Amino acid sequence: MNPHERQYVDSLLGVAAERLVERLVHRAGSAIDARRRLSEPGGPDALGVPAFVDLFFADSLLDNPAGACVVLQAFADAPMPPVAGATIGPALVAASKAAFLEVLAVKVEEALDVAALYEGEVSR
User: What is the mean pLDDT of each run of 10 residues along the chain (124 residues)?
Assistant: First the structure.
């Protein structure tokens, strides 16, 4: 992967994490509650995280085979997520979304943990 493409994907990941953290904190009322709800069984689905990734991919023009390949190249060393698709194009898009979601989840959890620490400091 070219360095500029990797930088682009890293930048998109940062933007997505920032937007998702903001959305989750708004929905849950605090970073502490958002982190707790996210870690509950079914939490990401209940909080709309997969739908967020779908919209983010559409807004970023990544919901096509070429965009999916850029994302998949960035995560080339990660295990291949299970995907279903009748043709290669939709399977590539599904795999790229799944890989992006896995990395995004880690970044969002880290950001919520930091925000929760600050909330705890403020409430003392």
Answer: 90 96 94 92 91 97 95 92 82 94 94 87 50
**For the chain, first and last CA: distance in Å?**
47
Residues 39 and 93: their CA atoms lie apart, in Å, by 26
CB half-sphere exposure, 44, CA atoms < 13 A: 14
Enter the pTM of the model. 0.85
For residues 61 and 88, the answer to whether their CB atoms sit within 8 Å is no
Amino acid identity of residue 74, one-letter, is: A
What is the DSSP track for 55-109? Answer: HHHHHTT-SSHHHHHHHHHHTTTSPPPP---SSHHHHHHHHHHHHHHHHHHHHHH
- Rounded to whole angstroms, how far apart are CA atoms 105 and 111? 10
Q: CA-CA distance, 74 to 66, in Å (whole number)?
A: 13
68 with 92: CB under 8 angstroms? yes
Residues contacting residue 3 through CB under 8 Å, at least 6 positions apart: none
